Amino acid sequence: MSWLMAAVYDSFTRASNEACLDRWRAQLLRDLSGDVLEVGAGTGVTLPHYPKSVTRLVLCEPDPHMRRKLQAKRDAAGAKHVEISAASLEALPATPASLDAVVCSLVLCSVPDQRAALKEIVRVLKPGGKLVFLEHVAADGKPDRLKWQRRIEPIWKQLMGNCHLTRRTEAAITAAGFKIERIERESIRKALPIVRPSIRGVARKNG
After folding, report:
1. Which domains does the chain have, with CATH numbers?
2. Each residue of 69-94: pLDDT tens digit?
3. Which of 19, 22, 29 lies closest to 191, judged by CA?
4. Which residue, among 156, 174, 173, has the nearest Cα to 165 in the 3D structure?
5. pTM (whole model) above 0.85
């Protein structure tokens, strides 16, 4: 199904991007600098929001269909200095403690092992490095919606590239050894109700 996801992703998410996600991404990324890596970069929706203070940017996207769209957007933007990698979150292309920041945008919902993925992010970040995240999560504050998320999740994962509806990503980030500096919880406007609950913010690697 990955070719279909790549074909429809931009149109499927356009309304939410215009309503809130583009603004949220711009706010999250504007203070980044130095060496930055984004995991699961998809079709490149974050690309326009990186500031010039980022001296090296690596966008990782393991899916070949998504990666073709990402490369086309990079080239159209005249940003050929931006590196694109096929690496997955389970094996990031960076040496230990070498990155100033790692960016996750709507990707921790779909990694096979969220705990292992966060451990890999810890490995590549410098002490005090940033994890910048924007993720949809379980609707813990709305029991009826959470019930529907649980019902729909098995088939949703099959159709949407292993996307989980009920992950508690904030707790996973903390358990991985990060200190959350700031976090906002807000509904993703124009999205399907089952994927509206979201968190976004910045966490720092301890040490």
Report:
1. 2-205 (3.40.50.150)
2. 999 999 999 998 999 999 999 899 99
3. 19
4. 156
5. yes
